[in-house]
Amino acid sequence: MTSVINVNLPEQSYEIAIAPSSLDQLGQQMASLKLGKKVLLVSNPTIFKHFGERAIASLTSAGFEVASCTLPPGERYKTLNSIQKIYDIALENRLERSATMVALGGGVIGDMTGFAAATWLRGINVVQVPTTLLAMVDSAIGGKTGVNHPHGKNLIGAFHQPRLVLIDPEVLKTLPMREFRAGMAEVIKYGVIWDAELFAQLEASKRLDQLRYVKPDLITYILTRSCQAKADVVSKDEKEGGLRAILNYGHTIGHAVESLTGYRLVNHGEAVAIGMVAAGQIAVELGMWQKEDTERQNALIQKTGLPTQLPSGVDIEAIIDALQLDKKVKAGKVRFVLPTEIGVVTITDEVPSDIIRQVLRGM
Amino acid sequence: MTSVINVNLPEQSYEIAIAPSSLDQLGQQMASLKLGKKVLLVSNPTIFKHFGERAIASLTSAGFEVASCTLPPGERYKTLNSIQKIYDIALENRLERSATMVALGGGVIGDMTGFAAATWLRGINVVQVPTTLLAMVDSAIGGKTGVNHPHGKNLIGAFHQPRLVLIDPEVLKTLPMREFRAGMAEVIKYGVIWDAELFAQLEASKRLDQLRYVKPDLITYILTRSCQAKADVVSKDEKEGGLRAILNYGHTIGHAVESLTGYRLVNHGEAVAIGMVAAGQIAVELGMWQKEDTERQNALIQKTGLPTQLPSGVDIEAIIDALQLDKKVKAGKVRFVLPTEIGVVTITDEVPSDIIRQVLRGM
Question: Averaged over A352-363, what is the pLDDT?
Fold first, then answer.
């Protein structure tokens, strides 16, 4: 069973195809898009070991000439240096404008491959084949690409939409538990900001802390609803003029926590979970959200095994300072996405620092 | 007298404003665009010494907060390393999404500032204030930005349109003669590919080899007609799907010559001049263009003091090989822009290597 979601954009629309074993259909799916013959597959060593051969076999049998390159795993290698390696291999293999880069991996590989494709010859095709839950429901969709600056996450980047997003839920079987949970943070986010039915389904599920307790049907449901939520929002606001900013729910404080812990102690999903708890409480303090709803949200986060408290040792004033560096800052004012009910959020830059301080102290 | 040319694009249109002393109007012109308060002015040390103070004074008096940075001059510094310096200063000055980078300089500064603006926070505003003839009539218009890869020019880049192009012809007075001539190569190009009247005006002018022999009225005419030609082409084909490729007239072999001489011996305009002579002759050999017209073109190039012959020591086979690396290569076939009459060109990828070889041997 293949579930297909359309991302409709003015310049170029594309499909998100979700189906078990679809990794073996990669070449065939790409062939139907009439892309050039040359493909550069970018991955990390672990993912490449698991799935590289299958991806290459599928591409080759569909007639593509495939070169590949692997980059070291982890957010701290999401740098211009890694991009330079992709450029070098693109040059060696004489990638032309009609060529395609394929990102086989998690968010780091997807963001970097997307950015390299956005900037090689001023833009070539990219296909996203996400292998983590986080990348499947979030980073592989919507065209945000980029790398980190030593002093801030994703400060360097471009908008560059993929030609196809291919999701094979079966590849999640090799995903470490902590990574699975990190992805669930974004899934819960969609429930809070957009899809109350998804939220209710998650609440009704007994366990969400490990993939093996989640039935394949529910996984497909979770992927489909989450991708649909992201596609809905991105289709309405490709370049974050307005609505798209709601996807940053939990990310304002989340990014600060991630950055202050050196992108190591706390991963992105965990940081978003902490950020959602904080944002929920801020909304309660401002009288915008019901206390019961924030408790429902936090219970769901806990059921998934994600943190709901600040990691010890993180300085609250350092978080307040770091917020000023956020990309979402406008005229020095920090923008927050805050829930008003399950499935609905609003955006405000009128959150007093004292409220932020107080909420963080309570965590 | 201000001459204003509109570049009409689906996502964002902008003006090219040409007027003597307009450098002092920079701040005022930008203020009318309702950009954010923060500006990062990027220049090179020589240009900054000549014009930096005036630009900053104009910006400051219009209410902008201005930071500045200078980068070493020359094509060989058009690298990701230089871009990283711009990012560092953008971070230090906390440039937000509403901020603007202003490129005050020639093509190298314009391309790099444009690329930095395209990729900082996934895209902030850029204003182009070109100070060389080449940048005024060509690189500052149309949104092509980028840097060089050690093995190829402009291989890394993005499309990112400026919010404004401000041209002050008076700044050309400090431009070295060789740079003036380099710009004239692109002016002649517009005559050949698009504007027979401009071509005729250039033919009718006694001397074109130094700025001081060209009357201010003619300079304004040259700037206006050239910018109009570029704006016409770019408006019809922003991302080089088809028509825009005609701007590469003279650039196919030109880029190869530039690259093989290490971007030092021959500058961009000189390389384009050589490339136009070669392309013209190829068109004649293929029976597409009149011999008399190619002679008119070459006479104009010579009158401007530009080279019409290959620099000694450049290996013809190396040029043939280098053509394969050109961004314009499609499925291994090199695309050439060839004239069919003065003011009209066509695009073909059916030029036999032997014809290229023969023409280059004759130069």
Answer: 94
> Is pLDDT of B11 > 90?
no
Q: Is A240 considered catalytic here? A: yes
**Chain A residues 40-69 within an 8 A CB cutoff of chain B:** none
For residue A36, list chain B residues with Cβ-Cβ distance below 8 A. Answer: 331
Establish if B87 touches chain A: CB-CB under 8 angstroms: yes
b/e string for B231-257 if b means 16 or more Cβ within 10 A?
bbbbbeebebeeebbbbbbbbbbbbbb
Residue A65 three-state SS: strand
CB B135, CB B110: distance < 8 Å: yes
Q: How far apart are CA A229 and CA A235, in angstroms?
A: 10
Q: What is the DSSP string of B160-222?
A: ---SEEEE-GGGGGGS-HHHHHHHHHHHHHHHHHT-HHHHHHHHH-S--SSGGGS-HHHHHHH
Ramachandran region of residue B332, left (φ > 0), alpha (ψ -120 to 50) or beta?
left
Question: Got the DSSP string for A251-272?
Answer: HHHHHHHHHHTTTTSS-HHHHH
Q: Is the dihedral of CA A125, A128, A129, A131 positive or negative?
A: positive
Pairing relationship of beta strands A152-159 and A144-149 according to DSSP bridges: antiparallel
Q: Are B89 and B67 in contact (CB under 8 A)?
A: yes
Chain centroid to CA B229:
13
CB burial of residue B160 (10 Å; 0-12, 13-18, 19+): buried
Report the alpha-carbon distance of residue A175 to residue A169 in Å, rounded: 11
In chain A, what are the domains?
3-174 (3.40.50.1970), 178-361 (1.20.1090.10)
Q: Residue A125 pLDDT > 90, yes or no?
A: yes
Complex-level ipTM beyond the 0.85 threshold: yes
Closest CA of chain A from B230, distance in Å: 19
What would the two tokens of residue B131 be?
A: 């100070």
Find the angle CA(B172)-CA(B173)-CA(B175) to the nearest 5 degrees.
Answer: 60
User: What average pLDDT does range A291-306 have in this prediction?
Assistant: 97
Give dist(CA A146, CA A258) in Å, integer: 17
